[in-house]
Fold this sequence. Notes:
The complex is a heterodimer.
Chain A: H1 2-20, H2 29-38, H3 41-61, H4 65-81, H5 83-89, H6 93-111, H7 113-118, H8 121-138, H9 142-163, H10 169-188, H11 190-204, H12 210-218, H13 221-233, H14 237-250, H15 255-277, H16 298-310, H17 319-335, H18 340-356, H19 367-386, E1 390-393, E2 410-413, H20 416-432, H21 439-465, H22 468-482, H23 488-495, H24 504-510, H25 515-529, H26 533-549, H27 553-563, H28 565-568, H29 574-593, H30 597-609, H31 613-616, H32 631-640, H33 650-671, H34 683-694, H35 704-716, H36 720-727, H37 730-735, H38 743-766, E3 772-774, H39 775-781, H40 786-798, E4 804-807, E5 812-815, H41 822-849, H42 857-866, H43 868-871, H44 874-877, H45 880-902, H46 911-932
Helix pairs in contact in A: 3-4, 3-6, 3-10, 4-8, 6-8, 6-9, 6-10, 10-11, 10-14, 10-15, 11-12, 11-13, 12-15, 16-17, 17-18, 18-19, 18-20, 19-20, 19-21, 20-21, 21-22, 22-25, 22-26, 25-26, 26-27, 26-29, 29-30, 29-33, 30-33, 33-35, 33-38, 35-36, 36-38, 39-40, 41-45, 41-46, 45-46
Chain B: H1 7-11, H2 16-29, H3 34-46, H4 51-61, H5 69-89, H6 97-112, H7 116-121, H8 127-137, H9 140-156, H10 162-180, H11 186-196, H12 198-206, H13 212-221, H14 225-242, H15 249-260, H16 263-278, H17 287-305, E1 306-310, H18 311-318, H19 322-334, E2 340-343, E3 348-351, H20 358-367, H21 369-388, H22 391-417
Antiparallel strand pairs in B: 1-3, 2-3
Helix pairs in contact in B: 2-3, 3-4, 4-5, 5-6, 8-9, 9-10, 10-11, 10-12, 11-12, 11-13, 13-14, 15-16, 16-17, 18-19, 21-22
Amino acid sequence: xxxxxxxxxxxxxxxxxxxxxxxxxxxxxxxxxxxxxxxxxxxxxxxxxxxxxxxxxxxxxxxxxxxxxxxxxxxxxxxxxxxxxxxxxxxxxxxxxxxxxxxxxxxxxxxxxxxxxxxxxxxxxxxxxxxxxxxxxxxxxxxxxxxxxxxxxxxxxxxxxxxxxxxxxxxxxxxxxxxxxxxxxxxxxxxxxxxxxxxxxxxxxxxxxxxxxxxxxxxxxxxxxxxxxxxxxxxxxxxxxxxxxxxxxxxxxxxxxxxxxxxxxxxxxxxxxxxxxxxxxxxxxxxxxxxxxxxxxxxxxxxxxxxxxxxxxxxxxxxxxxxxxxxxxxxxxxxxxxxxxxxxxxxxxxxxxxxxxxxxxxxxxxxxxxxxxxxxxxxxxxxxxxxxxxxxxxxxxxxxxxxxxxxxxxxxxxxxxxxxxxxxxxxxxxxxxxxxxxxxxxxxxxxxxxxxxxxxxxxxxxxxxxxxxxxxxxxxxxxxxxxxxxxxxxxxxxxxxxxxxxxxxxxxxxxxxxxxxxxxxxxxxxxxxxxxxxxxxxxxxxxxxxxxxxxxxxxxxxxxxxxxxxxxxxxxxxxxxxxxxxxxxxxxxxxxxxxxxxxxxxxxxxxxxxxxxxxxxxxxxxxxxxxxxxxxxxxxxxxxxxxxxxxxxxxxxxxxxxxxxxxxxxxxxxxxxxxxxxxxxxxxxxxxxxxxxxxxxxxxxxxxxxxxxxxxxxxxxxxxxxxxxxxxxxxxxxxxxxxxxxxxxxxxxxxxxxxxxxxxxxxxxxxxxxxxxxxxxxxxxxxxxxxxxxxxxxxxxxxxxxxxxxxxxxxxxxxxxxxxxxxxxxxxxxxxxxxxxxxxxxxxxxxxxxxxxxxxxxxxxxxxxxxxxxxxxxxxxxxxxxxxxxxxxxxxxxxxxxxxxxxxxxxxxxxxxxxxxxxxxxxxxxxxxxxxx
Amino acid sequence: xxxxxxxxxxxxxxxxxxxxxxxxxxxxxxxxxxxxxxxxxxxxxxxxxxxxxxxxxxxxxxxxxxxxxxxxxxxxxxxxxxxxxxxxxxxxxxxxxxxxxxxxxxxxxxxxxxxxxxxxxxxxxxxxxxxxxxxxxxxxxxxxxxxxxxxxxxxxxxxxxxxxxxxxxxxxxxxxxxxxxxxxxxxxxxxxxxxxxxxxxxxxxxxxxxxxxxxxxxxxxxxxxxxxxxxxxxxxxxxxxxxxxxxxxxxxxxxxxxxxxxxxxxxxxxxxxxxxxxxxxxxxxxxxxxxxxxxxxxxxxxxxxxxxxxxxxxxxxxxxxxxxxxxxxxxxxxxxxxxxxxxxxxxxxxxxxxxxxxxxxxxxxxxxxxxxxxxxxxxxxxxxxxxxxxxxxxxxxxxxxxxxxxxxxxxxxxxxxx
Lengths: 933, 418
């Protein structure tokens, strides 16, 4: 916003300036300014094109085909963009020239077999693509190119022969083309033409080099007048130039130098042009603000202000000096009591130029600048609060401003909200660019209080004066500074430990509103009043995050579900997505603290399974090769990073995820030991287990992951005590568990969960060796009370996970012993596979036919479509034993049939025979099953 | 018992007139102070035109005071207005458009006066009014019809904002309680409406989780055994989800029984439920049903988990004497709802074992395979013969397939018999 606003005002200033013809400060700026105003869209486009052409020519010179191709594509695009202008003006000659030259050049390279061999692979490839491309492309410009070539064939030939410097082909071409370029370019492009003319004038006056000519343009009065002359003559340029050509042809001795120069010029062309335009006024050259004796009134000060602002954004302007000047101006206006209106206006501009100090978007403010900026905003707020009769706004037109002291209220253009927002962004930038482990970071972080203070003041101000939109924006800023902070005071208060606050300051602070209340108020306002979706989405996410952080799981969950954010978050912009990821993670951790392991696992699954948690949370970039990300993207990504003090601990996150995966997965694995359809709940967890298994030597666990793996192994054996000691011990406490606010509760919950799940695992694993087992023994073994054991076992029985029933009079669990033996299990699996294959065949036929299937499948459709993922290629999943059985009994040809049927390629020709074999085989398999039993 | 009373919550969503029956009920049950109740009634009446009733209540409340003149004045006013409207409507024999309006006003006024039958007779524009009248008339059939009509209008209404529809749905949910718990088919419909219509379920979850009590009761007292298991599963999910916002003995009973399998506390809750049900205006009628079904639920779950149960313990859990319990179980076994035997020497019930052997499982799994493959083969054959028009060959193959398939179908049977 701020940028747009200021460029607009700049332009207005400039136009005004021209009207007033106010020239004493600006040396040659008016000329430049008029030029700038005159520069039309056409010129811009042409400049773009010429730039591209220049780079292509450079690339041609060094035979960098890849670069050439890339630039050429860009050129085509740029050309398309300026299509409308081309339609009006006709295709510019320099463009045609490039096309022709490029084609010639490529053909030449193509012919040169030797050179081609030497080229590296990339270049050679680019060459062939480019050649094809340009051939196709040039078809559209056939007539133009032909006419160009005709012209070329007469004049440059004469030139080259006379110059006699034809040894180097490349140079010849560039020199030629550049010479050729001049006249046409000038026809199209007045400003550049003038520059070229200057260059020409240079030559004529036999000055030494090009640099000087540039200086001329801006500095010396002589050349100024001369350039004016030239501009005057611009109408009959072609004539002038032709003459020059003639004269040049006569001066043979100059030719060689000219060539060199032409080359140089080609390189310096862009820079030279820029510099002319940037011949900005040197403000600091005028240390005195006003001439002595000038009566200082608001009109004069405003004039001065606009003067200073003129220089803004131009090359060569000393930005620091400009800030100084503005400060001085503020001082003067203060001394002379010109009223708050002017002061505010100057302050606005000071802050804006502070922001402008860094031209680069990625760079951050220097500490002193930052301090100054904070002070300035503070002062500005002071003034605004002290004087309620000041109206500020973005939409107050420059003309309707009322800066002078009068009866009417002041009206000043400018938006304090955007300034503060920008300040907030600058703060984030500073935090992003400071080393998080240094003292400096801590010092910088101390400023957060001030930032919050300013936002709070602004909030108060806007609540009375601002529109709802503005209020929403400032509320969001406030929320953004609140949501990630844990409210220790409220936490302590809820625990009833108020009396322990030590200093007075603490007491004072603890009297403030709970952050939960603030969040609630601000967010609800935004929900009700906001019109832009983005602010509301951010507010919801922050609200959920805040709830989750403070363990209000149900509120957080309900808000997440009701907002339906999960459905369309993928359409949001990356910062919002990062916020969403952070929220989901926080939600998961919250669920974990509440003992809702499954919810925790589900919430964290997406983030953890990708293995890019760091990146997804905006807490650092992953190392990737440059192909996936170039420097530009990296910069953008860097800008999205969350400052360190808002980070979510990644180790904690992973630990929470792995522990919840362990609590879910280990009993599941035990229950489905023989199940062919077993699916992994968490791939990540399995990966960790495998890593643990692969180690040749197992020492005591060191890292958090090793601890979890060791604990999982213990749990697999139903040994909850060891599991417990691995999960909760000194090391893990300091690494993970102590990071939770209510660490004791979490540990208790964890112990309980470990006991319960170990009990379940134990029952699953060892039920086959028991006939019956007393519940009392179990409750002793796992240190759980009897009703809990009873309830867990009942649940398992009801869900048919455990084939057993309770014997009430003796309080024992009686096993039914119906678990199939391993052979039986195999037979069951085999039967299941067969079913799967038949289903598969039917589906394949369905796909082919589209009619069949009314018989058996219709009602089962829903069922096996869900299992589709599994059935696809079910053959590959067959365990080794059943594979063996298949090969033994089905013979070679049936293999063929099987693979045919499973790979969904039912050939229509010998389908019949395949199916015969298939049927026979199936029959055999069924026999086999029954025979095995 | 006042802690579980929902009257205040429900009254928020009801019409003034619909609250009266609730208040009457409460005064009979004597949970609250009679005096306070009367006060409440008087407050309610102050905005209606039921002046006579108000005067009665007033006299009840302050027997020693004279009825205030404002009430008397209002009475004469109301009577005059009634007269006037009556005289306006009387001459309308033919229905004409411009009179409809007056008619409507008359009907509305009638309703305001407490003359419900009069209001319902007229074809009212306001379905709500009609519904309320039918409810107060206890005309359940008609009320049910009105309810469905009203529901359709609300659901099909695209004009109103989501917030408005939510509001209306909440009202409908509350009003419908009158109908559902009085209409014979109401308990099926209530499940259908509250649990399986996502919009209404959402309304309950966001606006009025206390309705879960009625939903739970309806599910438990539902007669349909086959559907019940699935319904219960869905209900348990909802109850668990909302357990942090709403809890009462009835929902807790379900939670104890189906989430924690804690039979002792389920038993305790059941006793509490009894007290709650007796004091609930809507549920008082289904008390018996509820207790009986709840017992059955407990027993059923118990049987599914246990292999051997002592009758005395069971009697204790079911809140019966041992003899009663034994008789009850015997009846269950005789009605073939239970596969069990009674060991009278030890006083145990022994459950039948119903595990499926692996043999059976394999047979189950492979039973249809052959037939399905055969069908597939035949279909392919058909397609091919269709393409080739080679009928002779097809017939040949068909017979071959037939042979193979018959072999197929027979073979498992032979083996199982072996």
